[in-house]
User: Fold these one by one.
Assistant:
Number 1:
Amino acid sequence: MKKLAVSVFCLGSIFSFAQENDLGAWYMYFGNNKISKKLNFHNEIQYRNFDAIGDLEQLLIRTGIGYDLTENNNNILLGYGFILSRPYINGEKSENIEHRIFQQYITKQKFGRFNLQHRYRLEERFLQNDFRMRFRYLLGFNIPINNKEMLPKTFYASVYNEIFLHLDSPVFDRNRVYGALGFVINKNMRVEAGYMNQLQENKNRGQIQIGFYNNIPFTKN
C-alpha cells in the first residue's frame, strides 16, 4: 500500500503540470512482435495534433528489427523513422519531412511491483536542409495496481522521464515527463491514457496521450 500511495502521489505531481491552453493530443500505436526466439519487429505510428483532433502537428512512423541479447531482455535495435511535421510559422502552416535512422538499447529490471525500463537511443536525423545527431535516454516504470503482476485485466500506473540531447550545440533539446493509467487486456495487448509535459526552448507544453500496445508474436516459438 505504501508503494501504491507513492505511485499515486507521483502521478498527481506529474498531472499538475497540465496547461489549460496550448494543449495537444497524441494518438499512438506501438507494435513489438516476435519473429523468432531472439528477433523482434518494431512498428509504430503516432498521430500528433495541436488540438484534440484535426489540426495535424506531426505524423511519425517508425519501424525496426531488434535482437535480444538475453532471453526477452537486453534488446538492441536498428530502425528507421519517417516524420511529417506541419508547424505554424508566423501564423501560417508549413510542412517539413524528416528521415531518421536510429539505434537503441533497451534493458528491463523488476523490483517488487516496479517494472523498470531503460532505453538508450541514438538518432541520425536527415532534415530537409540540415543533418543532426541526437541522443535520448528514457527511464520508465509500470506499477500494477489491482494485481501484483502485469496480468490480464490489471490496471497499472505508468510513468517515464525522457531527456533529448544534441551531439552539437546547443546540447539540450527537450525533456518529457509522462504519467498515465493503463489496462492490460491480455498477455499481448494493453492500452494507456495519460498526460505528457514537454519542456523545449524554455517552454512547457502539455499533451494528452492515448496509446495501444500490441505484442502478438508472428511465430509460435
Number 2:
Amino acid sequence: MRWVVLVLLFFGMIINFADKSIIGLAAVPIMEDLNLSYAEWGLVGSAYYWLYPVTGIVGAAIGDRFGAKKVLGVIMLVWAVLQFGVLAVAALPLLVVYRILLGAFEGPFSPIAYSHANKWFPPKLRGFANSVVVSGGTVGAMIVAPVLVALISIFGWKIAFACLGATSIVWAIAFQFLTKENPVKAYEQTKKKKKAKLEKLKLKDFGRLLVSPPALFTTLAYFSTYILVVWIAVWLPVYLVEVVGMSQGQMGYGVMIIGIASVLIYMGVSTLSDRMFKKNQNWRISRVYVVGTSMIIGAICLASIMIFQHPVWVVAAMCIAKGLTYAILPIGPTIMINELPERGGLMTSILTSSGNIAGIVAPLITGFILNLAGADEILGYNLSVLFMAILVFIFAILFLTLVKPTIRKQEESLESQASGN
C-alpha cells in the first residue's frame, strides 16, 4: 500500500508542477488572444504566488487535523474546477483571478504530500520517499513540457488547461479509492495522544520552535536552494544561450540533461542518507552532514561556471550543482517533521512557504543584479550565479554546524512499526 501511496503522490506532484509551468508554455498564444502587454503578463505570472505561501501553511495545518487523504482529494478537485474554468477566461481580470485561486489551492499540496509520505515510510526510507515526491516536480516542469506544448499547438491553450483538469479528477478518484489515511492500526494507537498535542500547541511555543537552530537553519538552507530552483526555471535557458553560446536546440538538450541527471543525483544522496541512518540511527551524521556537505560541493560547482564556460562543463557542473544542492528538498522535511511529529504538515509547510517566498524575490534579485551590470549582460548573469553560490554556501555551512535534530528514539520505533506493514 505504501508504494501505491508514493506513486500517486509522485503523479500528484507532476500535475502540480505541470499546472505551474503550462502558463509559461502557453504565454505567446495567451498574450495574443487576450491582447496582453509584457507588464500585464508579469502581473499574471506573479499573481500565482500572492496567496501560495499563506495557504500552504494553513492548508497543511488543516491536513494535519482532518487527514491528508481528504484534504488532498478536495484540493485536487478544486484544481480541476479551476482548470476547466479557464474555458471561460476572456480578459485579463479573469486570468489573474484564476492564477490567484490556483496558487492558493496548490500551495498546500507539497507540505501535505511530504507529511503523508513521512507517515507511510519508516525513518530509514523517508529520504528516498521524499526524493521520489520531489522528483515529480522535475518531471512535471521539464519532461512533461513537450506533451503540453503539443496539446497547446494542436487544440489551443484553453483545451490544454482543461486536459490538466481532467487529469486532476482521475488522480483524486484514484487517491480516494486506492489508498488509506494511515498505514496500520498500530498508528491509530497514537492518534488520541497526537490530537491532544494538537489542541495544546500554543503560538508562543511554536514561535520558539521556529527560531530554534534545527528549524531555522534548515529553513534557511531550503530557502537558499529555492533561489537556485527559481533561477534555473526562469533564467537558465537564457543563460545557456546568451552567456554560454548554445543554440536553441543545444539549450533544450542541455536543460533536459540537467533535469534528468539532477534527479538521479539527489535521489542518490537521499538513498545514501537513508542507508546511513539505518546503520547508525544518528540524525546529525546521516541527515545533516550528508546534506550540508552535498550543498557545499554543489555551491562550489555552481560558482565554477563563472570561470569555465565551455558548454560541456557548464552542463556537467549544473547537473552536479542542482543535484547536490537539491538534497535539502527531500531531507529537509524529514528534519522539520522530526522536531514536531504530530504537526508534520505544518512543519513542512514552513519549508515550502520559504521556497515560495524565494519564488517571489528571486526574479527580482536577478533583475536587480542584471541592472547593476548595465550593458554587460554576461557580467550580470555571472554575478547572479556568484550570488546564489555564496548564498547556498553560507547557509549550508550554518546548517552543517548548527543543526542538531531532536533525538526521538521511542517515537521512531513506534513509527517504524506503524510504517512497516
